[in-house]
Amino acid sequence: MRGMESFNSDGVRIAYIDVPPADGVGKPILLIHGFASNHAVNWVNTQWVRALTQAGYRAIALDNRGHGESEKLYDPAAYSSEAMAGDAIRLLDHLEIERAHVMGYSMGGRITAHITLDHADRVRSALIGGLGMHLVEGKGLPSGIAEALEAPPGTPAPNPTAAAFRTFAEQTRSDLRALAACMRGSRQTLSRAELAQIEVPVLVSVGTLDTVAGSGPGLAALIPDARALEIEGKDHSTAVGAKPHRDGVLAFLAAQP
User: Fold this and answer.
1) What is the pLDDT of residue 125?
2) Which residues form the AB hydrolase-1 domain (predicted)?
3) What are 227's strand-pairing partners?
């Protein structure tokens, strides 16, 4: 795997990988990871990059601002979904890519939805994973996550989900203060009317045991050219790298012009 590169996204340094398929030429797919994760945890370690490049795609994965090797910012206003969608679009600009498939998981799915709504001319198809009706309803994660991330080590978290995010963030060696700002700034929803305006093909993939995402079929029903992929027996953390998830995405991509 080649190392990370970086570029200037409107004043913010964004790190990314750009992995061609074996034959060197393939349709690009932009991968956008979830909260407190990074490109490696979300897409490399789960075999997504390998599966996509073996299937003939050019896999591009960024570290979102505040995550991984990208620049850390501490103002919640810097982490709006629109700002992070802007980083993704500027990465396509930087790589001189006119249109790409865009796949995001969890927070990355939220960013993907905003990209698809605001920059439809850049999107071949959109793959929204780990996010269903909570994109509309704004529910999902309990309060206290940002506070748990900022608390001194050993401080009891206010609820099990907050504790899990703190543990995950420490495992990924994340900047906890940057993540707290991101959590406070990135929870934008989309209305049913906005979802009805999405014109590109969409796949919504959610594990059947996922308590964070909301209904995948419910979200897909609100988007004109969308279908749902239910990943049996998987929750929010285990659905992302599940083989049925990869198989369903590859079949969806293969059906796109």
Assistant:
1) 98
2) 27-126
3) 203
The reported pTM is 0.95
Query: Cα separation of 51 and 121, whole Å?
Result: 26
> Which residues of the chain carry a pLDDT beneath 50?
none
**Residue 236 confidence (pLDDT):** 94
DSSP-derived pairing of the beta strands 58-62 and 100-105: unpaired
The per-residue pLDDT for 36 is 92
Cα–Cα distance for residue pair 236/1, rounded to 1 Å: 27
Strand order in the sheet with 12-19: 5-9, 12-19, 58-62, 28-32, 100-105, 123-129, 202-207, 226-231
Q: Which two tokens mark 18? A: 């750009």
d(CA 160, CA 163): 5
pLDDT at 71: 98
Residue 200 near residue 120, CB atoms below 8 Å: yes
In 10 A of CB 6, how many CB atoms?
15
Give me the torsion for CA of 206, 99, 58, 254, rounded to 10°: 60
